[in-house]
Design a protein that fits this description.
Blueprint: H1 9-15, H2 36-39, H3 45-65, H4 77-99, E1 103-105, E2 111-113, H5 115-134, H6 138-142, H7 152-161
Antiparallel strand pairs: 1-2
Helix pairs in contact: 3-4, 4-5
Length: 175
Amino acid sequence: MPGRKRKPEALGKLEGKMGRPRPPEPRFEGEPVPPGWLTEDGTDERHKKFLAACRQKWEEMLDILHRVPGLSQQPDGEALARYAAEAVRHAELMRFRARTDAVVSDGEGGWEPNPFERQLAQASERMLVLEREFGFTPQSRTRLAVSPGGNTKAKKEDAMFGGDDIPMYGATAVQ
């Protein structure tokens, strides 16, 4: 459906702009779980190093997401793992780019852009999309307003509309 994307309820409450009341979002019990491919051992030494770096990045990002209560839930594990893999791949491409030139010989006496430049640009675009989803960009963070006492507007809405204790069909309410 055209229009703006729906914002996760936790982000809307932090921004203090929930708009008109809507049914509460489903809450899933438990922490995000890394997908199976992230917990594998790897087939060769390079693959093992890549997976180890992805697991480390996954843990770092999970720690960051835990700073905003209710933002990360059990089904977010796969998206977080994709972000971790993209971040590791992006770092590898940046290290390679630092050792190479922006243009390379085309084999016919001319010059062409280094193919890794395109891969780096594509990886950057994919990371930016995921960073926006998780609130990891400066622009997405400017819409968040966290005060020491919590969001009073969200507290008033919780009092008026019953808060988060009403589970959606097929979901479990988490306190």
